[in-house]
């Protein structure tokens, strides 16, 4: 039987909700439910959540951005809050929990006003008035002299970073903050506004404790060098994204060999070709070869003969960062690189950190471009949570570089905003007064 009206337009299994009770209040309810999940994780004393994602991977964290990303949220209204949390995380790097919790609170207050008879558009106008007033008040609450902060002063940086790091790792901020501050100051460009959070890397090594963590001026690759050469200094670097091996022919063919002599000559031809390629790389001035894929045994043999250090970097993202650190251009296949395609490193060495062999690439000529925080911990879960705390610290530093103004913490600013918004709402007239009054920080 053919349906009529809206039923004829939508496919089978559809849901059509309309009116205040069905649509608006159910959407508000979904937002409040999501807010209730993350709210208990807010602040230094917030509780951790155990989340198992669709791949059955276990997360134990109080980081709201991780929680909402790993939860498979289906409700469209709740998804809007998830998108808001992601936008906050991408832009500021912290405060995702406050975004969701505050949004849930505003929705709860809006529900009361809707039940009183206000239209959603009137509530939105009232909330917008409150936002504009809040921004005005915030300018008055800024600490005097905080706009002249020196972002290269470690003591000041640590002082401002502590609250953000403590919200993730309460009690560990005294150990973590100096590490993060060191790493950030090392890679801070001449114009601090151009600070790039991607230049502070994290290497997680299981074993030891947080007190064993350190900062390395350069890039740390969590693998050993492929050959026997483990340390070189002031070298040129060639990067091959396609690997260091004999390249397969574009067309398939059959070779008919009649004698042992022909077989021996065929093998020698391939060997000579590989040697020619490796020799051409060595003649270009490169002392380090970085491979983005497999390193063939024959190619490695000739690299050893020509005293070339060989590194294998499987991740394309790590390879890209390596190129940025050294200034190299990644070549698709093994061939002689031009002078402008070679990178430079002050030193490339294999070091042992807590039983794990890692390769450290340092490049401080013209300003060190990458610093790495080497984190130590007993389990992968602890290391993941420590990484999130470091990420918050680095993003706090980025915010300082953009705008160093600060306001009082420990909810003092929020209480003052609530008080002044209440006073402001009493002076307003019209239907939106209730929503301005409700838009105070709970």
UniProtKB/TrEMBL annotation:
Organism expressing this protein natively: Triticum turgidum subsp. durum (Durum wheat)
Annotated protein name in UniProt: CCT-theta
PROSITE patterns assigned: TCP1_1 (PS00750), TCP1_2 (PS00751)
GO cellular component: cytoplasm
Biological classification of the source: Eukaryota, Viridiplantae, Streptophyta, Embryophyta, Tracheophyta
Keyword Protein biosynthesis belongs to the record: no
Main localization of the protein described in the UniProt heading: cytoplasm
Family: Belongs to the TCP-1 chaperonin family.
Compartments where found: Cytoplasm
